[in-house]
Structure formats: C-alpha cells, structure tokens
Amino acid sequence: MRMEHRVPRRMLLGLAAGLVAATALSACVLLLALLSGSDTVGRAAPMRVQAAVGAYYAALPAAGAAAGLLWPLGRSRLGAAIAGTLGALVLYGSIEAAKGELLPLGVGDAALLGVLALVVGVPAGLGYREIFGARGRPRKRRD
Q1: Which of 3, 50, 85, 107 is deepest in the core (most CB within 10 A)?
Q2: What residue segments make up the domains of the chain, in order of their start?
Q3: Helices (H) and strands (E) in the chain, counts
C-alpha cells in the first residue's frame, strides 16, 4: 500500500475513534446530569451540559484526525513526544474553542495551553509508542 493511501485512512480511523470517544463521554455527562438534576457539569469550572457535549464532539474527532495524520512520527521517541503534544494541543484548543473561550487568546492563555499540551501530550505520545510500538501494533511480551 502506498503512503498517500495510508494517511487519509489513518485520519479517518482517528476521526472515527474520536467520534466513539465523544459519544461515550457524552453519554457519561448526560447520565451524570440526569442523576444530579443539574444542567451544569464540573465543579472548578462549571459548564453547561450542551457545551460539554459540543466540546467533546468538536475536540475528540479533531484530535483523532490529528493523531492519524501524525502517526508516522511515532517511529521515534522524539516524534512520538511531538505527535502527542500536537494532539493534546488540538484536543485542548478544540475544547476551549467549543466553550467559546479560545479567542481572543491572551499570552497567559496560550502559555497555559502549551504547558498543558506538553504535560499531557509527551507522556501520552511516549506511552502510546511503548504500548503499540513503532509500527502501530501491540508489542508481544517476552516472558
């Protein structure tokens, strides 16, 4: 299979995985809202249920598609760390945009978004590489 055929396929798989994750998380938020009788979720930064569901559907498919696009970077540790950071940046940026709080982006907000992307993205990218290996398949354990 040629490379130009793999990239759109990986992006579509990532997009599909993001949609599945968004649906699962949305179901959890809706269930919590029904059980609590409230139309907001979260304590530190309360968000309306509709905004949370919208944020999930905006952020997770975008992050999944970005992960599919950046998949080849996972062949090296540095590439996996970069891919994880960029994926986290897309994820958190999409959530902030869905909440309507991304633009205008101040220097402090940009710094916080960058630090959050690094703190979450680097371990996520390296962990994903460790679990699935450089070729994207689960590694066989040596006993």
Answers
A1: 85
A2: 3-132
A3: 4, 2
